[in-house]
Amino acid sequence: MSANPMQLTEVVTQRVADRTGRRVKNLVVEVANTGESVVLRGRANSFHVKQLAQQGAREALPHALLENAIVVD
């Protein structure tokens, strides 16, 4: 994907928000090295929502290294 990190961040953030029904509070998506790695941060009320967030990020950037740091409350 030939986009700058800001565009990639927006794409991943939107995909995660759509996939989770916006159920991740304080969602922060960090994209580094032009999409080579992604970190998800925020809070979810279930592991299911955390997993959905991860799936959304994978759909947007399937080959990126992914760290899912979303905290489940």
What does this 3D model show about the protein?
The protein is of the alpha+beta class and 73 residues long. Helices cover 41% and strands 33% of the residues. The protein is built from two helices and three strands; from the N terminus they run H-E-E-H-E. It has helices at residues 5-20, 47-60; strands at residues 25-32, 37-44, 65-72. A hairpin with a 4-residue loop joins strand 1 and strand 2. The termini are far apart. The model has no long low-confidence stretch (mean pLDDT 94).
* Secondary-structure element pattern, one letter each: HEEHE
Mean pLDDT across all amino acids? 94
Q: Assess the beta-strand content as a share of residues.
A: 25-35%
Low-pLDDT stretches: none
Class based on secondary structure composition and strand pairing: alpha+beta
Helix content: 40-55%
Number of helices: 2
Biggest beta sheet attributes? 3 strands, mixed
Order of strands, widest sheet: 1-2-3
Q: How big is the Rg?
A: 11 Å
Q: Oligomeric status of the shown chains?
A: single chain
The termini sit apart by 34 Å
- The shape, in one word, is globular
Total beta strands:
3
